[in-house]
Design goal:
By secondary structure, the protein is of the alpha+beta class. It has one domain: Lipid/polyisoprenoid-binding, YceI-like (Lipocalin, Beta Barrel). The chain contains two helices and 14 strands, in the order αβββββββαβββββββ. Strands 1-4-6-8-9-10-11-14 form an eight-stranded antiparallel barrel. It has a two-stranded antiparallel ribbon with strand order 12-13.
Length: about 230
């Protein structure tokens, strides 16, 4: 019985040490200001396109060994150990003109109603797989990744695959950019089909999500004084 207890204790200790070592090898980033997410779609009135934007993108990004954390760092193409959870509050989205100026409070209200903001406060993204596809040919060029994950809009989750460009900065930040097209009806969000003061507006089903996410390395806690 003592032998079994010793073996079990040794295995538990080894697993705990391995877990700590794995955690030490991960680099964690937190969201910072300077990012933007834009949703672009088509409409039948005034302009051929419409757009809504948010400058609030929250969340965390965690990467393992092999991820290029510095500009120009050597990296081998292939899968990278990574985790990410991203959120955008629906009430932070605003309709904007092509030059980024606020367009209409009425459009904001319609958009939030269609996205069921009362029940589902956030657009969510959970990264499930990250693969480095191309290394930069210049120090100021981004690394090109393929990102697979789960995108949740209005409480409905679908899997998505997209190309993501990641540009390490000298100040331990990352600029993460990309875009993907989705159909809103895949998320149970019906296109707008409504009579307004400016006329009858009808929007298309497919929209394009374009984003720039800024994250910075989290500082490690200072060692406890002895």
């Amino acid at each position: 019985m003592k032998t079994r207890t010793l073996i079990a204790g040794s295995i538990g200790l080894l697993l705990a040490v391995a877990s700590v070592q794995a955690a030490d090898q991960m680099t964690t980033y937190g969201a910072r200001t300077g990012g933007k997410m834009r949703i672009e779609g088509t409409a039948n009135i005034i302009h051929t396109t419409w757009q809504i934007e948010s400058t609030l993108i929250g969340g965390m990004f965690e990467v393992g060994p092999g991820f290029p954390t510095e500009p120009g760092q050597t990296a081998a193409p292939g899968k990278i150990e990574a985790k990410a959870d991203v959120f955008i509050p629906v009430n932070s989205l605003q309709s904007v003109t092509e030059d980024g100026k606020h367009y209409s409070d009425s459009m904001d209200d319609i958009m939030r109603q269609h996205m069921k903001e009362a029940q589902h406060k956030r657009i969510l993204y959970h990264l499930t797989e990250l693969t480095l596809k191309e290394v930069p040919k210049a120090k100021d060029a981004p690394y090109v990744f393929e990102a697979k994950g789960d995108l949740t809009i209005a409480g409905v989750t679908n899997k998505t695959t997209m190309t993501v460009n990641i540009l390490p900065q000298a100040d331990k930040r990352l600029e993460i950019t990309g875009n993907t097209a989705v159909k809103m009806t895949d998320y149970k969000v019906e296109p707008v089909d409504k009579n307004l003061v400016i006329g009858h507006i009808k929007t298309g089903d497919e929209v394009k999500l374009i984003f720039k996410w800024i994250v910075a390395q989290k500082k490690l806690p200072a060692p406890a004084a002895k």
